[in-house]
Amino acid sequence: TAIYDTMQYIKPDVQTVCLGQAASAAAILLAAGAKGKRLMLPNARVLIHQPAIDQGFGKATEIEIQAKEMLRMREWLENTLAKHTGRDIEKIRKDIEVDTFLTAQEAKEYGIVDEVLEHRS
After folding, report:
1. Is 33 exposed, middle or buried, given 0-12, 13-18 or 19+ CB atoms closer than 10 A?
2. Region 75-85: what's the mean pLDDT?
3. Domain segments of the chain: what residues?
4. pTM of the model
5. What is the pLDDT of residues 7-20, one digit of tens each?
6. Residue 38's closest CA among 46, 30, 48, 29?
7. Which of 49, 84, 119, 121 is catalytic?
8. What are phi and psi of 45, to 5 degrees?
9. For this structure, is 84 an active site residue?
10. At the N or C end, where does the chain have fewer CB atoms within 10 A?
11. Where does the pLDDT of residue 56 fall: very low under 50, low under 70, confident under 90, or very high at 90 and above?
């Protein structure tokens, strides 16, 4: 969230470009670029999904703390994606239930990027 907060705080527009893949937090940063300056190469892809942890062990209180933090991060992710894509939050909730991969064109239609770069200008 530090990079996201910085992108939103500074005055200059931040241009984002997806080369290859923008997965998880990188997908949020891609969408958080300045409107009109969020770009993607034609064969790149985006992955959006809900927060997850690899560890499933520990004390009950530690697991509870981790679960609460994951739910807080999920809510932040949903709200942030909705803000930057213009998508309904219910649609985002549904889409991040499982790993959702988007082609460059699909990411454009979703509102994550503004333009798919087909050739050099």
Report:
1. buried
2. 98
3. 2-116
4. 0.92
5. 999 999 999 999 99
6. 30
7. 49
8. -140, 160
9. no
10. C
11. low
